[in-house]
Each structure stands twice: as structure tokens, then as C-alpha cells.
Amino acid sequence: MDNSAELSTQQWATPRLAAGALLAAGVVLLLCAVFVASDAVGSVIIGIAGLMLLGFGAYASLIRPRLELSAGPQLTIRRIGGAVTLTPADVERVRLLTMRRIGRRSGQLEIDYFPAAADHDTEREGTEREGTEREESMLVVFSRWDLGADLLDVVDALDRAGFAVEDSRR
């Protein structure tokens, strides 16, 4: 029996085109700061904006994929500080939040997990986590921008993989 569809890896990241647009806009602003701005204060402000766009673009280009779901199931979250790989037992909660902002619905995907540092605690294995979840857990929040996909699709994939999902649609 071939279960290769179940063993596939799913990855989510900021679209490359968006990251490239941020980098290009940053370069344009830096060039404007050097060659176009007529006053020193305006030049500094435009230069700072250009550097910020370059930073955001570099972050979106280098931290890829932001979220990866692979066989096992294992969930890998990439951040500036490195990647952390989690199993369903390591994840306290995956929650999809939807809210109205400026007349439009936007969503956030929250992943609450127990950090690797907690693995050094020898009592963690056999004890209940009741009452200490908030003290020990780490929270990572993703938006559609971070993952480059519909958050509902990401939540459905995590639910199918066996992660504890809280979804307000149900």
C-alpha cells in the first residue's frame, strides 16, 4: 500500500514576489535618500525607511519556510533564532483567530508550544501540565502574510496531522 500522499511535506512562507518587492522598494528609497532628497532631515528619514524595508525583505527572503509540516507528524517553525521542530505532544494548542479590522476580516494562527528547554526538566514527563502551561509555553503568531496561504488551509492541514486545533468555525 502506497501512502506517499500522507508522507509529503507541506511548507508555508511569505511569497517570494512580496519579499522581492520589499527589497526593491528598500533600494529605491535608499537611492532617493542619497540622490533626490533636498534636505538632510528628509534624506535621513527616507534612508531609515529604506533600511527598514531592506530588513523586512531580507527577513522574508531568508527565513523560509516559516512553517513546515512533515511526516511523523512533525511541525518545524523557523524564526530568526533558529528552527524548532515539534511533535503533537509538544504543542499545547493551535488556534485560529479571526477578527474585524477596519471593516475587513483578518486572521491569526497561534501556536502555543512547550520549548525545547523544558525537555531538560526530568519531572515533566510524568507530571500533569495543569496550572503551569502559561508559565512554560511559548507562543508564535502567524498571519496570512507570514505563511503566504489561507490560514484555514493551514489549520486544516495541522488538524489532519493530529495537532490539537481550536477552531471557531466548529
Roughly how many Å is the radius of gyration?
20 Å
The largest pleated sheet is described as: 4 strands, antiparallel
CATH C-level label of the largest domain: Mainly Beta
Secondary structure: number of strands:
8
Strand order, largest beta sheet? 1-2-3-4
Protein name: PH domain-containing protein
Organism: Gordonia polyisoprenivorans
Transmembrane segments: 17-37, 43-62
Keywords: Membrane, Transmembrane, Transmembrane helix
Gist of the model:
The chain is α+β, with helices and mostly antiparallel strands.
SSE arrangement:
Elements: E1 10-12, H1 16-35, H2 40-62, E2 67-70, E3 74-79, E4 82-86, E5 91-101, E6 104-113, H3 133-136, E7 138-142, H4 144-147, H5 151-161, E8 165-167
Parallel strand pairs: 5-8
Antiparallel strand pairs: 1-2, 2-3, 3-4, 5-6, 6-7
Helix pairs in contact: 1-2
